[in-house]
Design brief:
The protein has 12 helices and 4 strands, in the order βαβαββαααααααααα. The protein is globular, with a radius of gyration of 19 Å. Bound molecules: glutathione.
C-alpha cells in the first residue's frame, strides 16, 4: 500500500492520476495546507520543504523499510519505475520523457502557480492593487510563452514527449487544463494543439479518477476570518515562521 500525503490541488492530482493510471493501491492521508498540516513534525520528516504531495511506499521494490518521497517529479519517476509504465526503458526515449518532466517542474508549475497567486490571491493580500501589476505581467506573460512551447510540441506529436502517453503528460496535464480558468477561455483559440491534447487526456478514466480523488477535502465553506487565517499560513512564510512551526510541532509531538 502507498500512503499519499495529499490535498486536492494540481500538484496533488499529478500523483493520484499516476497511481490510478498504474493501477496501484493507495491511501490518502489529508494534508490541509491552509490549516497548517504541512508543518507537523510527522509530515516534515517525509517532506522537509513543507509542501505536499509526498508518498510513503510500504512495499518498495526489493523489500526493506518503507520509502518516503517528496517532490511530484521524483514521485512520478519512482512510480513509473516501480510499475514499469509510462517511462520508456530505452535511454534516448527515457530522457525525451524526463526532459519534459523537468520542464514542467521548473517552468509551467512555478509560473502558473505565481500567475495564479498574483491574479487571484494577491488582491486579498496586497495593500495596494498596483503592487500586483508587474507580477501579473511577468507571470501571465511566462504562462503565455510556455503555452506556446507546449502548443508547438503538440503540433508535431500526439503527446508531449512523442507518440506515447507518458509521465510527461501526467505531470503537465493537471496544470495545463487550468489555463482557460487562469487566463480566459479564449486562450484555447491561440493554442489549438494544446487544447486537442488537454481534451484527449481529460477523457482517460484514470485522469478523471485521480482528479476527483479526495475532492470533498477542499469543499468546506469558510468564513472570512477562516479564509484570512489560511492565507496567512499559505502566503506569509519565512524561515523564522517555518522554524517556529517546526519547533512547536515537535514539542507538541505532532
Ligand atoms: N515542486 C513541488 C511543489 C509542491 C507545492 O507547491 N505544493 C503546494 C500545494 S500545490 C503546497 O504544499 N503548499 C503548502 C505551503 O505553501 O505551505 C511538487 O511538485 O511537489
Amino acid at each position: 500500500m502507498i500512503d499519499v500525503h495529499y490535498w486536492p490541488t494540481p500538484n496533488g492530482w499529478k500523483v493520484t492520476i499516476m497511481l490510478e493510471e498504474c493501477g496501484l493501491d493507495y491511501n490518502i492521508v489529508p494534508v490541509d495546507i491552509g490549516g497548517g498540516d504541512q508543518f507537523s513534525a510527522r509530515f516534515l520528516q517525509i517532506s522537509p520543504n513543507n509542501r505536499m504531495p509526498a508518498i510513503v511506499d510500504h512495499e518498495p521494490p526489493g523489500g526493506g523499510a518503507p520509502l518516503a518521497l517528496f517532490e511530484s517529479g521524483a514521485i512520478l519517476e519512482y512510480l513509473a519505475e516501480k510499475s514499469g509504465q509510462f517511462l520508456p526503458a530505452q535511454t534516448a526515449e527515457k530522457y525525451k520523457v524526463l526532459q519534459w518532466v523537468h520542464w514542467q517542474m521548473a517552468n509551467l508549475g512555478p509560473m502558473m502557480g505565481n500567475a495564479n497567486h498574483f491574479k487571484n490571491y494577491g488582491k486579498n493580500i496586497a495593500d495596494d492593487p498596483s503592487q500586483l501589476e508587474y507580477g501579473i505581467k511577468r507571470f501571465v506573460g511566462e504562462v503565455d510563452r510556455l503555452s506556446g512551447v507546449m502548443d508547438a510540441q503538440l503540433s508535431a506529436s500526439q503527446y508531449l514527449a512523442g507518440n506515447s502517453y507518458s509521465i510527461a503528460d501526467i505531470i503537465t496535464w493537471p496544470w495545463a487544463f487550468l489555463l482557460g480558468r487562469l487566463i480566459d477561455e479564449e486562450v484555447w483559440e491561440t493554442f489549438p494543439n494544446l487544447k486537442r491534447w488537454v481534451d484527449e487526456v481529460a477523457e482517460r478514466p484514470a485522469v478523471q479518477a485521480g482528479r476527483n480523488a479526495g475532492a470533498e477535502l477542499g469543499k468546506k465553506e469558510l468564513t472570512e476570518a477562516e479564509e484570512k487565517a489560511r492565507r496567512e499560513i499559505l502566503f506569509n512564510q519565512t524561515n523564522e515562521k517555518v522554524r517556529a512551526a517546526r519547533e512547536a510541532a515537535a514539542k507538541a509531538g505532532a
